[in-house]
Design brief:
CATH class of the largest domain: Alpha Beta
CATH architecture of the largest domain: 3-Layer(aba) Sandwich
CATH superfamily of the largest domain: P-loop containing nucleotide triphosphate hydrolases
Keywords: ATP-binding, Nucleotide-binding, Transport
CATH topology of the largest domain: Rossmann fold
InterPro entries: AAA+_ATPase, ABC_transporter-like_ATP-bd, ABC_transporter-like_CS, ABC_transporter_ATP-bind, P-loop_NTPase
Strand content: 15-25%
Structural class: alpha/beta
Strand order of the largest sheet: 6-7-8-3-9-10
Number of domains: 2
Radius of gyration: 19 Å
Number of helices: 7
Protein name: NitT/TauT family transport system ATP-binding protein
Shape: globular
GO molecular function, one term: ATP binding
Order of helices and strands: EEEHEEEHHHEHEHEEH
């Protein structure tokens, strides 16, 4: 596999140590090795504090590793880039702007004329099933709709890589299920590279081509679990014994560490 192609990611021996003032240093990640193929959907799971979100911020270039290197499309990651778009748990929509202008914001900020940016934003809203909401304001949307706007905004800049940090964590269980299926529908149109952080093992198995399991702090790659279920996937997959076996295997890798993070031994 040629990881220098657009969308390819290589994480080579990456470690990150935080040095907070007047406190002991914290080793968040240690010797992390990971490759992601162009167009692959990879999920990352692990106990709280294992460095999942930290890894995502390293991939986006928001922070710099203490050791090791990261490349995206064959180029060193030294800071944020239009080739990578981040979707956070909080949608961070601007309440004073319409939905279409929220989606167009990054394009306008990059110098595109507003009319053209709105055209692109409208196309992305159609992709996520929110064309009719273009003139609404964020306060008029449900949580699931707001996150679809958030995803449309990320897609509008046409990145090679989507980095999603628990984007459905604030949603109720039923909405979260539907949003997982919607995300796969949206992704299947052009299959951009996706790295998706989640605490929910069943969500990871449903979405991913591979699930990366991080150990407790300092986080390192404990195992990479392939998910071989055919695509497209339907939510009924979650009710099959085969699906349950993959979920159980991943849970067996992290159960003790999750209990430890809660003070339960």
């Amino acid at each position: 596999m040629d990881f220098t192609r657009p969308g390819g990611i290589v994480v080579d021996g990456v470690g990150l140590t935080f040095h907070p003032p007047r406190r002991d240093s914290v080793v968040a990640l240690e010797n992390v090795d990971l490759t992601v193929s162009p167009g692959e959907f990879v999920c990352v799971v692990g106990a709280s504090g294992s460095g999942k979100s930290t890894l995502l911020r390293l991939l986006d270039g928001l922070i710099t590793p203490t050791t090791g290197t990261i490349t995206a499309g064959g180029e060193p990651v030294t800071g944020p880039s239009p080739d990578r778009a981040m979707v956070f748990q909080s949608d961070n929509l601007m309440p004073w702007s319409t939905v279409v202008d929220n989606v167009a914001y990054g394009l306008v900020l990059g110098g595109m004329k507003r009319a053209r940016a709105r055209q692109i934003a409208t196309t992305q809203l159609e992709r996520v099933g929110l064309a009719d909401a273009a003139r609404l304001y964020p306060r008029q949307l449900s949580g699931g709709m707001r996150q679809r706007v958030n995803i449309a905004r990320a897609l509008a800049v046409d990145p090679q890589v989507l980095l999603l940090d628990e984007p459905f964590a604030a949603l109720d269980a039923q909405t979260r299920e539907i949003m997982s299926a919607e995300l796969l529908r949206i992704w299947s149109a052009d299959r951009k590279t996706v790295v998706f952080i989640t605490h929910q093992i069943d969500e990871a198995v449903f979405l991913a081509d591979r699930v990366v399991v991080l150990s407790a702090r300092p986080g390192t790659v404990r195992e990479i679990v392939p998910v071989d279920f055919a695509r497209p996937r339907d939510l009924s997959l979650k009710r099959t014994p085969e699906f349950g076996r993959v979920v159980d295997h991943i849970w067996s890798l992290i159960e003790d560490e999750v209990r430890g993070s809660l003070g339960l031994h």
